Amino acid sequence: MQDPKQEITGVITDLTSATSAPALERTINTYFTPDARFLHPLCQTTTRAGILGVYEWYRIMSPNTKAEVLSVVYDKELNVIILEIVQQFRIWFSIFPSAPARLNTRLTLREVKGLYYIAQQEDFYHATDMMALLMAPLVPIVRLILAFAGWVCGVNALLFT
């Protein structure tokens, strides 16, 4: 990328909505370093080939994924981009409808001969957003569990101070 802040939205769109394996491979080979890392709450890999495998499986599981980049923050000094993304991910065999899932993605860039490449991608999800990806109907249960845990923290704070 010559201008990461301007180009990254298109890169994310190409990664998350590729309709063929060759298109996905072309995108990953164009924008990721050979030793790129991918860190996600459910998996991780430390090679560009591994990242291709993750994204290809993602494409197979949810062939009609839609991702919308809501915000791009680029720190040129640190070579880091922070993205806020909302995606609709539905596993093809699931009987449940998709639900929007919000995530923050941190991209560490590496400059090589005036172009910027993704050296590391880290995806961060809130528990309810992760459940929205996996099984959307369970989101209310996760919210109840989190609310209960918050209540327990408040009670414990009162009891132990």
Automatic annotation (TrEMBL):
Q: Which InterPro entries match?
A: NTF2_SigF
An example Pfam family from this entry, by short name, is NTF2_SigF
Signal peptide range equals: none
The transmembrane residues are 141-160
Keywords linked to the UniProt accession = Membrane, Transmembrane, Transmembrane helix
Q: Where is the SigF-like NTF2-like domain?
A: 1-159
Give the protein name, as stated in the record: SigF-like NTF2-like domain-containing protein
